[in-house]
Design brief:
heterodimer; A: mainly alpha; Glutaredoxin; 2 domains; two-stranded antiparallel ribbon; about 10% strand; B: about 130 residues; alpha+beta; four-stranded mixed sheet; 3 helices; 13 strands; about 20% helix; about 40% strand
Chain lengths: ~200, ~130
């Protein structure tokens, strides 16, 4: 899907950079091979980008302009309507907004608005990321029981961070689509808390 | 040996574990994290952080890793049984970087292992999308 958008707009100095927050290259490989991207499709097993950009779920998209400035901060953007029946988020409007921006028909957000729409990390978020970082390292170094302690702790510290709570499941041998995930999701949304938090669609 | 991990870096060093604390020598601290104490100031290649009043960091040549993290204002995840700790980046540092709106730079590999750096795409409009198979 991103490939079609990239092909359509690449002559206009536009690029898609996709980043898989997966536990291994091999987890991401089948999806990337199927998409056959000619834009950079990168793999971030240690959640470097989640830490740098305070990303707490996927999919998360942001716009970066020619000068390297964030002009639309973290938003929920699906490339297709495959999950629309579950997420109630459709892809057409956000993709139309990207097109209009790349064609120069609209601008990104002015700095004050972009800042106002950002969610910045708290000390607890960063403690959770340190716990995740330790757990991920321990899992890679043959210490699954110690890793589990820190994955659990990370999830307790940042219960809204699904790159940690769900993203750690494949590392821990838990099915990320299975009963443990559904239980986690139910516990979260039953308190009236959304699983996806798109930006208010102020730009139509 | 005890492994001290930071984003993008890890180093195993000699350490003494005492009552849940990880105690490093000045040499081990420098090897693990690049910090050295001079005249009440903790410095690495890039910056210096003064010790708070009354700090006992480095007293007797001993550095408590938890106190180092607290002095730097950084989160520390610690597992003395497993022999490893992860020193993260503070919320303040991340918030300042994001608030500047300069997209934080990173280098990550593609499927072939080829590294790509965000800033190499300067001059283009970028749609950055984080996704996952899960």
């Amino acid at each position: 899907m991103w490939q079609a958008l990239y092909e359509e707009l690449r002559q206009r100095d536009f690029v898609v950079i996709a980043i898989a927050l997966d536990k291994s290259v091999d987890d991401a490989r089948p999806w990337i091979e199927k998409a056959a991207p000619t834009y950079p499709a990168l793999i971030d097993t240690q959640h470097v980008v989640a830490d740098l950009y305070n990303i707490v779920n996927v999919p998360t998209a942001l716009w970066i302009d020619e000068r390297g400035r964030i002009v639309r901060p973290n938003d929920v953007v699906f490339g297709t309507d495959t999950f629309k029946h579950i997420t109630n988020l459709e892809s057409a409007r956000p993709l139309a907004a990207v097109r209009a921006w790349v064609r120069g028909e609209t601008a990104g957000f002015p700095p004050a608005d972009a800042r106002a729409l950002q969610t910045l990390p708290t000390a607890l978020d960063q403690q959770a990321r340190a716990e995740f970082g330790l757990a991920e390292w321990l899992a890679r170094h043959g210490q699954p029981e110690a890793a589990e302690r820190h994955f659990v702790r990370a999830g307790e510290l940042a219960p809204h961070d699904f790159t940690i709570r769900r993203g750690s499941m494949p590392i821990r041998g838990i099915d990320p689509m299975g009963p443990r995930f559904r239980e986690m999701l139910q516990g979260w949304v039953s308190g009236g808390r959304p699983y996806y938090r798109p930006l208010p669609d102020t730009r139509g | 040996m005890f492994t001290v991990i930071e984003p993008g870096r890890e180093q195993a060093v000699e350490a003494r574990i005492e009552a849940g604390r990880v105690l490093l020598s000045a040499d081990a601290l420098r090897d693990a994290l690049g910090w050295e104490l001079h005249d009440g100031t903790l410095c690495n290649d890039a910056m210096c952080v003064p010790l708070p009043t009354g700090s006992r960091l480095g007293e007797g040549g001993v550095f408590d890793l938890g106190d180092v993290a607290a002095t730097l204002g950084r989160p520390l995840a610690l597992d003395t049984d497993a022999g490893a700790a992860f020193l993260g980046v503070s919320a303040g540092e991340r918030a300042q970087a994001l608030g500047s709106l300069f997209a934080p730079d990173f280098t990550l590999p593609d499927l072939a292992g080829q590294p790509h750096t965000l800033s190499e795409y300067r001059g283009k409009k970028i749609l950055m999308v984080a996704w996952a198979s899960w």
